[in-house]
Amino acid sequence: MKKYLLILAFLVTYISFSQEDAWVYFNDKPNSAAFFSNPLSELSQRALDRRTAQNIDLVINDAPLEATYVSQITAATGITVMAKSKWLNCLHIRGSITDIQSLLAFPFVNHVHFADDSLNNKMAVQPTIVPVNKQLDVQVNFNYGTSANQIQMLNGHLLHQANYTGTGKIIAVLDAGFPNVNTIAPFQRLRDNNQILGGYDYVNQSTNFYSGFDHGTMVLSTMGGYVDGQLIGTAPDAKYYLYITEDVASENPVEESNWVEAAEQADRVGVDIITTSLGYFAFDNANYGHTYSDMTGNSAFASQGANIAFTKGIIVLASAGNEGNTFEPHVGVPAEANNVLAIGAVKADRIYASFSSVGPSFDGRIKPDVMAQGQSSILSNTSGSIVTASGTSFSCPIMAGMLACLWQAVPSLTNQQLIIAYKQSCDRFLNPDNQYGYGIPDFQLALTIANLSSEEHKKENFMVYPNPTTNTVSISFPNNYTNATVYLYNTLGQILLEKTISTSVSNVSLETLNSGVYFYKIVNNSITQSGKIIKE
Fold it and tell me: Which tens digit of pLDDT belongs to each residue from 89-144?
């Protein structure tokens, strides 16, 4: 009996004092009115301009966390605050199970969610997640050297020749460290032109972001590196923020919270594009890890944050992952998110790189989204030498830089409209698969499509995509319109479907229809638009 009592005592002690990771979610933001009356207290003018340009309203998740809530949680017994998220209105905390559960006594706490899902009450209330110009006559001829293939594969050199090199666009890089970016020669051009705007180390809570693991330095070089005749990045004239969110010494859910906190800061300072060569599936504590069944687009914490970033008008890209040859080959977090472009890897000859993670997502969505050269990519190491390295870590920023160039060319398009045009340029757009996604984009073709979209946008037309399609079409609204009714007809003129749509619910299911040609009509108070849809 004494033996069993000792075991019981040990279990009680373990449950009471073992350190667990969790998120504590708040009920509200009682002082949000102050933010809405003065948005510049939280967001830069550039962040507000991005929203205005894309007809995006300020919402409650733009407001900062309630400071008194944060201070009370910070002062709570046994609790360490690891990270914060205004978008998800929560804190990432660490403490014993008992101390974490005691936070429920605060009237402003909605619920706590443990990283170890076995500790959660499955009936607990979950937080509500907000759903989601003119060409210049200057020609640039870069001497790409051995980096030519990874740009020319995408026809990116043609955008560069039209002087679309990322000027005016800001890219945030979320990674594991950026040592020597402030000293080595491949970044001299960025430094001379003041293109590195700032950054932060969220792992060590430090303003020294020229530190950490060398991975981020290599990643940045594929976009911003410049060594004539050896390496030209895909966006040599873009500007950059550098954020360290990854702790290479461990694998813990706090890194997802760091990621979201950095994404919120990226939004705050007005970035256009977030690129991240990080991914999450398993953690050091097996109880914290994700499973394939979690890959549903908006379940994991970082995926939720990435989706919200998209609603702010930001384009988010993430490496698909390098697990294609492993027992769990699927695209991970946050690349699996609904509104994140998951970038896979091909070899120099455009053939799938066997290490590149594959789709589909658990709920059947196409992943990866697109591909770029990720095997034997040309980049700079931390000593400034131009070398080759492989991984979706490099195909992702190569693509991010080219998207900055494309957006520079058609700045009037929203992030959603730009992505539509970009995907339609891909070589497998009509026949996507689980290895290549929609395939390899052609940025010269994407520019042509985007220019057409820009003209349609100016005419205040609805955009219906993808077309041809399989089971669903999405309808993008022109500026200043929020509601419409869509009618679908067969070739005999019979109405098969009538649905009211809005800017928040704009998908139309065609699952019950056979393959063939159908006609649509979209009716708004001041617009009537007709066309045809091909269902494959």
Answer: 999 999 999 999 999 999 999 999 999 999 997 544 444 433 332 222 334 578 99
* DSSP category for residue 332: -
Are the beta carbons of 175 and 219 closer than 8 angstroms? yes
Q: Which two tokens stand for residue 362?
A: 């658990």
Nearest Cα to Cα of residue 242 among 218, 359, 483: 218
pLDDT given for residue 1 in this prediction = 42
Nearest partner of 116 among 245, 2, 234, 253, judged by Cα:
253
The reported pLDDT for the residue numbered 459 is 55
Please give the single-letter amino acid code of residue 220.
L
Q: For residue 128, what pLDDT is reported?
A: 40
User: In whole angstroms, what is the distance from residue 370 CA to residue 532 CA?
Assistant: 27
pLDDT at 454: 62
Tell me the longest C-alpha to C-alpha distance in the chain: 88
12 dihedral zone (left: phi>0; alpha: psi -120 to 50; beta): alpha
Q: Are 186 and 386 in contact (CB under 8 A)?
A: yes
Q: Say which DSSP state 535 is in.
A: E
Count H helices and E strands in the chain, helices first: 14, 22
Side-by-side strand order, sheet with 528-535:
495-502, 483-489, 516-523, 528-535
Q: In whole angstroms, what is the distance from residue 111 CA to residue 90 CA?
A: 10
Which pLDDT belongs to residue 141? 75
Report residues of the chain scoring pLDDT below 50.
1-16, 123-139
pLDDT at residue number 504: 65
Question: What is this structure's pTM?
Answer: 0.82
Specify whether the backbone of 117 is left (phi greater than 0), alpha (psi in -120 to 50) or beta: alpha
Q: What's the rounded Cα separation, in Å, for the pair 46 and 39?
A: 12
Q: What is the 3-state secondary structure (H, E, C) of 81-125?
A: EEEEECCCCEEEEEEEHHHHHHHHHCCCEEEEEECCHHHCCCCCC
How many CB atoms within 10 Å of residue 158?
A: 16
> Element (H or E) spanning 418, and its range?
helix 415-424
